[in-house]
């Protein structure tokens, strides 16, 4: 607003008038410029002002003339020491002129403190004499006032000379003198300069803590200390332990930790298997029992160490986030043979570690190590390969990918990729081109993205790929160490050797189905090799073949459906709920079909439903009756991590088809949602190691559409460039550039093909792929070349019409219908096995899609249908006997339908069937939710929402639980298929009409399972405020945190819960429940620590002892549970309580001990009772 200055100008500001009748005041620090004074503004001058605040007592409005649009950042840092000039004197201090035309202020109190300590001195005269305008002074900045844009300074010499002024002046491990200011039960509050910190009781002395130790420290005492840690909340911890203070070797970060170095650490926790050691900066290490002194017989590390003990430990190994320690100096690593990056080798497996293999030469020298995740293209198969490769066995197809440190890092995964074609090598940095795709391995996470190691010959730096260059979604996937990632070069700084990479799927994947099938075929080859090895080495789960009939014994039935079975050779099998009859009983023997094997979790996939088993051929050899089919409808059998298992109908010889769930290495989220239906159409693409491979027809058509569109766009761009360049003189040279101006495809990037720097349009695909000489003769490639020729001739519209013709086919075709192609031939090689032998597809589904004639599509169906049509044409007139037979068959068909409708046990298969069942049972939430699932399976989300609304109207309002189930089902639907707005709207309504706590808890669990952590945290924040007095709320949220591995947040909830709930009994129950959650979902050591803490203060709680023992037994800690029971019965308790403990002890020994142990417990009980009676 506009303000008008008045004649009255004060020493430190000016008065003004605004809005006709209002008066205000502008302080000199709020003038438009620090250089201006109030005298600069004459009476009646109109300027712009903003209201800062109104002084309530005097009703004075304080204004500012400064712009409010932006507040600039201070130019000088807090703690900075400057030479300043006194500019003017104020009633409460002096103003200073700082460098860069900045303004500061010092209060009178600090001016007085800066004067010499002399008696009978006139303070005012001394201040005027020493700090007169224009005098130069040395000052230190204490703070910055953003409203006044004024620096708060001091001229006190002791503060100016102070070295420890802010947290920035403090470093972890630094030796400092601290002054004890306050003594507290938890430790000592100390100050180092102007920084305040804390010394926990554990760090007061080298000796074990006792209250007497603290008595030797007095307030005001100055002692030597080291900075132990600085938290994210800027809390500083110090240590007074002499062994740490006097030792200059401080381990402050994981990066500093090197094998063979020795550092002092503090025992934070002991365990029967070892001890946790903590260093500076909260760096922790594990000192295992086996790495204690070899000359000492240590049976229990809990007796060997005490809490807070300082030990000098050696670093044995550094893993991803922890340090492995030893009390003895580790030997040096075996010297490694030097290998250049890109060298392909074979070797002998040496030592097999938990997460890597050592590889030796035939002479026994170490060649390098193969990290577990470099063994296969599938992260799921890598742990299985660790079992497959044993010491002394030969391992081939390895390639050196990193020689920066010893030992060399070798990779089987990259070795197989780069040996699939001859004369292909990893490139040097100088030969890299913009838009080229390179292979990388994941190294570590960063706040702004991920670090990867690109596989380049002469490049040793890790490269940061920013979050926005990984995925378009907000949620970044969780990567595993050494995971394969493909990246496209966005920019190259050759002078600084800096790469800018992107790993977004649309940038590195050219929508080429052939590339997808090549990746999947590598997975199938690896998987078949493991199964073959398992057969030869008596892996029980690998002794059967897909399609084989096996006798199974039902071991356990699951509540949600499905069961566990045992196969004849003792192998474990799992039957999914949709493949398991509902009439089974435990112990029953039944025949099933062996479908597949889960190599990672070591169980077989079995089908026990006869109606499905009859459709599965016993001979799963990949042979199909009709060699010309290109697409076919299949039944969905199983959805696994990397693939889906489907079943061809009769026209496909009842073969099992494997379908990839990832289109590319960078398809981090996969395409599982595409295969949720019970039946769908697929394209038969290839055959690899007697396995039929396919892909969803809808997905295939979408990918081809995108590929054609991108190629068309690239062709237009190339044509435009050609026209522009033809204007210049060098026509021939320019045309050659245009012909080469295509982006390298993913496969070419693997094999080191170069790409032009001119093309930045970048989706990373070429029209024609380079292939081996052996592959040039393959019919599959010929068909692809025909398509490319068609594109080059301007016939993209013809191909698009073919695709649209396929998409327009009626989805209501008979499930047995199989489309045929006239010109289809056998396909080309899809992938090479690890020995280099080609695996040839028997079907040409990919290529033959583009050669299907429209009129043939309309006229041709499966061979069964054609025979039926021919027969009907021949039989133009039926005899009386034939008509009677047809009538009889029709009557039987109708009768069968009526029986099915009358059978209440048969699951509904149509909307009409559901409606009929709901008429008789409208209050069944189970039936309504199944109705919703029926529509969701058909991707009819709106119909599912309609069913939910119908259910809420139909279910009786008094049936609270049934209605809640519907609301939760609707919430789950919106969470999976809706938007955030629809979910929030549904959530608000659900909270309004149901138990709000139940809705909150279930919603939080849904969001956690979906990986929507930010939305989950938002709901948790709200429910904590609304239901903080409910123990159930705290426990359920903690459980959710534990289940998603957020242990720190879960443990913080315990403290928050105890502050919110004051009832002592409830608090005790909460602590016990948190301990149980820690055992079940978290870390056993933390759970045990909680129980031990409770028992140390409440040793007479018998139920705590028994619960503690039960948790240990569930985790298989039998010896530890026995020790706890021995401690429990050594207490002085009433006979009734001790009887319960002895009874628990006896039952424990009966189940987990020997008969001698049982008798020993009985004897102890008798002795206890005898002593108790004697005292009376």
From TrEMBL:
Biased composition annotated in UniProt, kind: Basic residues: 711-726
Family annotation (PROSITE patterns): S1
Gene3D superfamilies listed in its UniProt record: Nucleic acid-binding proteins (2.40.50.140), Tetratricopeptide repeat domain (1.25.40.10)
GO annotation, biological process: rRNA processing
Composition skew (Basic and acidic residues), residue ranges: 779-797
GO cellular component, one term: small-subunit processome
Stretches with biased composition (Polar residues): 845-855
Primary location: nucleus
Domain S1 motif stretches: 79-146, 173-241, 260-328
Highest taxon of source: Eukaryota
Localization terms from the record: Nucleus, Nucleolus
InterPro entries: HAT, NA-bd_OB-fold, Rrp5, S1_domain, TPR-like_helical_dom_sf
Comp. bias intervals (Acidic residues): 798-817
Sequence segments annotated as region (Disordered): 711-876
Protein name in the entry: S1 motif domain-containing protein
